[in-house]
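Hi there. Long-time user, first ticket. I'm pasting a complex I've been working with (about 222 residues overall). I'd like to know whether the download I got is complete or cut off, because the file seemed smaller than I expected. Thanks.
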Amino acid sequence: MSIEARKIRLIMELRRQGLADTAVLSAIERIPREAFVPPTFRDQSYEDRALPIGHGQTISQPSVVAVMTQALEVDKRMKVLEIGTGSGYQAAVLSRLCRRLYSVERIAPLLREAEELFKALRLHNITTRLVDGQVGWPEQAPFMRIIATAVAAEVPGRLVDQLSEAGGRLVLPIGRRGRPQQLLRITRSGDSLLEEPLGEVRFVPLLDGVEETGRAARDRAS
Ligand code: SAH
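Hi, the file is complete. Here it is re-exported in full:
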């Protein structure tokens, strides 16, 4: 089956799962997931599964990207912050739907690869930073939308602080490593927060600090 046919099959599968937001579906259709997947897994680009991207990390499952993107309810006027650039795939999808996407990552080589892809795909409204994303991006706050693609035990307070008070929204997985995790949507209005559970998910953990090269180089060798 051609990669185009596999892509269409995936989009139909997402529709069947109840994904109805046509803007989200067309963003997924327009971003070539195969470009974000390592060559050895490329034939699985349009399977609905997470795949390894090196450094112990994964590119999220397409249906999870779709659910999180839909739950964010992004529009073209919005500034959006993503914690956990990883392969850059989720960032690329979001960049088609918002005004400007800020994406932060803690592993330097992953971020460099993602930045190159953004350039090659001409996704010019993405700005990145190598940082521990638990601090957010205070200079650019407030954000109308924040998404975290790594799991924390609790909602990071600094991310909530950087949400717009006028309906700012945060979508993130919460839980402990290896245990069932809950996808949450938090909507801020002034000082009050509305929390909605969106179902069970599995993400890699949100970790402290930044990795310049060290462990990354060792992972590649093994
Ligand atoms: N959105 C990514 C998913 C990558 S997996 C994609 O579409 O491919 C989660 C990513 O979060 C990993 O790359 C991991 O290194 C990163 N991460 C984990 N803890 C982090 C932190 N504190 N700050 C920034 N990034 C973090």
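A couple of notes from our side: DSSP finds seven helices and nine strands in the chain. The first helix runs from residue 3 to 16.
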